Amino acid sequence: LPLSPKHEFEVAMTCEGCSGAVTRVLNKLGDVKFEIDLPKKLVWIESDKDVDVLMETLKKCGKEVKYNGTK
Predict the structure, then answer these.
(1) Tens digits of per-residue pLDDT, 42-71?
(2) What's the burial of 62, exposed, middle or buried (CB within 10 Å: 0-12/13-18/19+)?
(3) Cα separation of 46 and 22, whole Å?
(4) How far is CA 28 from CA 20, 23, 50, 70, in A?
(5) pTM of the full predicted structure?
(6) CA-to-CA separations, 65 to 3, 10, 26, 38, 51, in angstroms, rounded
(7) Distance from C-alpha of 34 to C-alpha of 27, rounded to nearest angstrom
(8) Which domains does the chain have, with CATH numbers?
(9) E-assigned strands of 1-71?
């Protein structure tokens, strides 16, 4: 199977609570693999879902989100 693209997002996370919120919304979305780097404020998401969908999902945390492209 082809690998899903890996998208890099910058999310203004400042604490464990923020990264926990990101984890919750992404798990709820389902069918995504993700990694969170809290010190660097980065979230990598492997998914076939549309970038807009991923972006809207991350924004549910109430944090500023920036898309850095695929890696």
Answers:
(1) 999 999 999 999 999 999 999 999 999 997
(2) exposed
(3) 14
(4) 12, 9, 16, 22
(5) 0.91
(6) 24, 6, 14, 14, 12
(7) 9
(8) 6-70 (3.30.70.100)
(9) 6-11, 33-37, 42-46, 65-70
